[in-house]
Specification:
- The chain is an alpha+beta fold.
- Helices cover 60% and strands 15% of the residues.
- The chain is built from 10 helices and 5 strands.
- It has a 5-stranded antiparallel sheet with strand order 2-1-5-4-3, sandwiched between helices.
- A hairpin with a 2-residue loop joins strand 4 and strand 5.
- Helix 1 packs parallel to helix 7 and helix 2 packs antiparallel against helix 7.
- The longest helix has 55 residues.
- It starts with a helix and ends in an 8-residue tail after the last helix.
- The relative contact order is 0.10.
Length: 250
């Protein structure tokens, strides 16, 4: 029954992590939920995400909501030497290691000593990686000896789901920005075409000559062409200023 409950909770969390295509999505809150999910589903004592900056440097740490100050300090140690550091450098998961083991003492002496002081028994890490894009790494701290490999696999699944959600939201945000730019460009084009047509009809000339007049006026006065076209459409730009060689008929 407990296993079934964990599986259902895992499924619910994965659905939650996929729901990122919304306007008020908060990446920091999402990463905090990843850490919370590890504590809740894996029974970890604590968990946190170490991010990478755009230039590849180790960035800020985002931890679970209940994390103690001592564990926060431990995560800072781990940025220098520890499972999360290895995961960031390799882009691979780092299996659970008991901090009292000789292996931990050799690989991460300072981190292992700090972990023992803070009551951590074992630690493992997985990357937030998708299609060669490495966002950071997730570290999971346990109060018990190293868990089975299934725990590492679940942590990686949670990290993968979070990474996919973050990257999808980034693509979605870029698409929305591009769509807004295209919409603005289209509206500008429509105004310019409308202004050309109005002037060509008034002056009984071709649209190309009307456009040349618009462009020359915009350049001479250092104004955006769309702004000049808008003024023509709204009839706020006197025709005599636009084309002094003709009488003002506006």
């Amino acid at each position: 029954m407990a296993q079934e409950s964990r599986e259902l909770r895992l499924a619910a969390v994965l659905v939650e992590f996929a729901d990122t295509l919304i306007g008020d999505f908060d990446p920091v809150r999402q990463l905090g939920r990843l850490a919370d999910g590890c504590v809740e589903i894996l029974g970890a004592r604590s968990a946190g995400v170490t991010l990478l900056e755009g230039d590849g440097r180790v960035g800020p740490v985002i931890h679970d909501a209940q994390q103690q100050q001592s564990v926060r300090e431990l995560m800072e140690w781990e940025q220098e030497s520890g499972p999360v550091r290895e995961s960031l450098e390799s882009g691979m998961p780092v299996r659970a290691v008991a901090v009292t083991s000789g292996e931990a003492a050799v690989r991460w002496p300072q981190f292992a000593a700090a972990a023992r002081r803070f009551g951590i028994a074992s630690v493992y890490a997985v990357p937030l990686l998708r299609h060669e894009t490495l966002l950071g790494a997730l570290s999971v701290y346990a109060s018990e000896p190293p868990p089975q490999n299934g725990e590492l696999a679940i942590a990686q699944i949670l990290a993968d789901a979070t990474t996919v959600g973050l990257l999808n939201h980034r693509t979605y945000s870029q698409y929305r920005e591009l769509a807004g730019q295209l919409q603005g460009a289209l509206a500008s084009r429509v105004r310019i075409e409308q202004a050309k047509g109005m002037l060509a009809e008034r002056w009984r000339t071709t649209p190309d000559r009307a456009f040349d007049t618009l462009r020359q006026y915009a350049r001479k006065n250092r104004l955006p062409l769309d702004q000049v076209a808008r003024a023509v459409v709204l009839r706020t730009l006197p025709e005599a200023r636009l084309r002094p060689d003709r009488p003002d008929r506006a």
